[in-house]
Each structure stands twice: as C-alpha cells, then as structure tokens.
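Researcher: Here's a chain I'd like modeled. Treat it as a single chain, no partners, no ligands.
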Amino acid sequence: MISLALPFPEFDPVAFSLGPLTVKWYGLAYLAGLIIGWIYVRRLLTNTRLWRNETPPFGVEKVDDLLLYITFGVVLGGRLGYVFLYEPGSYLTQPWEILAIWKGGMSFHGALVGCAVAAWAFARRNGVSVLSTMDLGTAAVPIGIFFGRVSNFINGELFGRVSDVPWAMVFPQAQWLHPGIEPATRHPSQLYQAALEGLLLFIVLRYLTHHAGALKKPGLVAGTFLAGYAVARSIGEVFREPHAIHALNIGPFTAGQMYSLPMLALGLYLIWRARREAAPHVS
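Model: Modeled as a single isolated chain. Structure tokens:
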C-alpha cells in the first residue's frame, strides 16, 4: 500500500518571514476568508434586487464594523471552542496556553457560535434585522471554510482515515499521533471537506441568494448554511481521522458529527420559519 501512495507535498507551513515576524499559511487563510467575505457581503448589499422591496437591511458603510465584530467572533469563538470542546483537560492544567492561538487549535463549531454572537451584537447595536445579518454572514462563510481546509492540508493536519484508495497519502504528522500503525496511507480528507463544506456549500447558497430570492426571506440562507454544513461535515467525518480519545466518539459516530446535530436541528427550524413567514396568509 505504501508503494502506491501519493507523496504528500512538502509544504512549508510558514508562508513568509519579515525579520522576527513569521506569517503562516493558516493565518493567511483566515485573513483571505475574512477579506474576500467582506467584499462578497458588500456586493450582496449593493445588489438591491436580491432584497425584499429592493431594500437591503443596512448600508454598505456598516460592513467595516460588521467585519470587526465577525473577526473577534471567529478568533475568540474558534479558540475557546477548541479549548472547551476538544482539549479541556490540557488547558485546565495550563490555562495560559488558551491565549496561544499562534500554536494552533481552532474549532469551527466554536467559531460559528462566536460569529452568531457577533452578528447578534452588531444587529442590536445598529437596530437592524438579526436574521438578515446572519444571512449575509453565512452566505460568505463557505469562502473562509474553503481556505481554512486547504490550509489544514498544507499543514498536514486533520488528516483522513487509513485507506488504500489510489490518491491516498502518507501524512508525516500521523507518525507522531499514531506511531503504532504508521506509516500508513490515508484519505486527504481536508480536500474533501474543502470541496463539500466550502465550494459546494457556497454554490448552493449562491444559487439561493441570486436565483431563488432567499435573502427576501430572513433566516433562509442562515438555516440552509447550518443544515448544509452539518450534512457536509458529517460526510467528511466518515473519511477523517476522529479526534483522539473524545467522549463523543460513540461507536461509528465522531465528535464532529455530534456537534453538528444541533446545527442541523437549528438550520431546519430556521428554514421552516423563513418559509412560513414568507408564505401568503389566507384569512
């Protein structure tokens, strides 16, 4: 099996250095997701035909503030989510490591909660629709997910399960985490997740916003994103090596799938609510 494996590209996790400053691909992925998402949200707001009565929920001039809120939500939520959802024991013994985000360790589910709180706070402060604000944010989220998963691949982390598919790879980091079975060929599951959670989900949401009038039904885009991500993540977890020794790895199910169940339920509720509110009322 090893002789047929594709070689894992020897990426340098450091994109470039400027004196003592080291910039990693992972950080650039977050930056690219936020900046491109900011541009995309601006374009959605300026396309008035996408909105009910051709009236966006707020003006383009407020997008800079929204970006600031979302950035804090992503960083704080992602880091705290990883600490409490995946490694609580390690950080309780070394709480000062919680702030060491440059060492890695971010949770998507935590970042999502952080973004939801940030969107709510932005909407309340500016007196605009919370659901429409969340629709805007979630329409752009798959962009960041795509870059994030590609950077996971570059870093050789969050690799897949052992497999003998023709495109399987030997991931160097796996030798540190699973020395008893390494070297073994594994699914490049990071790329599967980039395609499902990033590219495919963006295409679905893009169709809804530009061809199905979804932004005219507050909550529909956010609900579709939540449900769609939950399904995509659950499929990706079938090929991804589960987080080691996690209480929610139950039988064939993984912690990532378990954490996605509330997303699925909330997403389906928001879809139902948006469709009900948009339906004509007959007296």
